[in-house]
Amino acid sequence: MTAAAGSVDLMADGVLPFAVDALDARGRVVRLGTAIDRILDRHDYPLPVARLVGEAVALTALLGTALKFDGRFILQTQSDGPVGMLVVDFETPDRLRACARFDREAVAAAIAAGNDKPEQLLGTGHLAMTVDQGTHMSRYQGIVPLDGASLEEAAHRYFAQSEQIPTRVRLAVSELVRRGEDGSPRTSWRAGGILVQFLPEAPERLKPTDLHPGDRPEGVAAVVPDEDDGWVEARMLVDTVEDDELTDPGLAASDLIYRLFHERGARAFPHQPLREQCRCSRQRVADMIRSFSPAERVDMVKDGRIGVTCEFCSTHYDFDPAEVEA
């Protein structure tokens, strides 16, 4: 394999794109250490919620780094499960932030009942993926249902329905326990993922399954064409990836790609760094407060001050009402 990123720090936050020309496949591997650790450390998430947020951030990184222009990629879920909302915001070229809204009592009950898998925490609702190219361009949004599906399954549906590109996604999150400088154990988070897509030059090799037209007679099966042999091989190889391979700080992304595709001659491209950084600022928050009506701003005053806490980074902003009015 031609490893353009072989010298990259194994712990580096980032995405490593690759291609397997013999299989007409392209993909990306994401590894998150410091970035996901900072995102999760900013919140008091129960363990299953933290894992779900980690998966969402890894998926967003895989998809957002494919943008070829300045803009944002936003992944958002809304559902009736214990985790009612997830939002992950990727801003080109490298900034990530994320947050979750959840019912703490419902999550505790789900944990006690053993119903704390990511798809069980999400429940029924939808997953929206939005591409924002800026104020002078229209947004693109794809929506897929969440009906007991995991984020991996929702991503597969999205690409089958919206993009009609055969796609395979694997996501994993792990919690590492290390000894701190004072000898006490310290927990840190790792997240990872891999995405591979079938992108042949000959369009006739893409054989999408017919979507249900809505008026197909009962008992008549949908036409399911045979999958391309190259795509079957690529998909099956990705299915062999273990969770610990995606999050192991001692395993470089280039080594994982080599393990999967070395017989076919994989090529790795330059490593794309990622970092955790919120978009909030004192000026942005002040402008947001000013967007409310005077009566609403009066209602915001508590003990003579207006306080706002960013849901993404937990930074608290404190304002004198006269400062906002000015």
State the distance separating the first and last CA atoms: 61 Å
**What is the strand content?**
25-35%
What is the average per-residue confidence, as pLDDT, rounded to a whole number? 88
Number of strands: 15
**Which regions contain 5 or more consecutive residues with pLDDT less than 50?**
2-9
Q: What coarse outline follows from CA principal-axis ratios?
A: globular
Order of helices and strands: EEEHHEEEHHEEHEEHHHEEEHHEEH
The helix/strand class is alpha+beta
Helix content: 25-40%
The oligomeric status of these chains comes to single chain
Biggest sheet details: 7 strands, mixed
Contiguous helical run count: 11
Radius of gyration, whole Å: 22 Å
Structural summary, described in words:
The structure is a single chain. A hairpin with a 6-residue loop joins strand 14 and strand 15. 34% of the residues are buried. The longest helix is centred in the N-terminal third of the chain and has 18 residues, at 47-64. Strands 1, 2, 3, 9, 10, 11 and 12 form a 7-stranded mixed β-sheet that branches. This protein starts with a strand and ends with a helix. The chain has helices spanning 34-41, 47-64, 104-112, 118-122, 151-163, 229-238, 243-247, 253-261, 282-290, 294-300, 321-325, and strands at 2-3, 14-20, 25-32, 72-79, 83-91, 95-102, 124-132, 140-147, 167-179, 185-198, 267-268, 272-273, 275-276, 306-309, 316-319. Residues 2-9 have low confidence and may be disordered. The chain is an alpha+beta fold and 326 residues long. The chain is globular.
Summarize the structure.
By secondary structure, the chain is an alpha+beta fold. The chain is 30% helix and 31% strand.
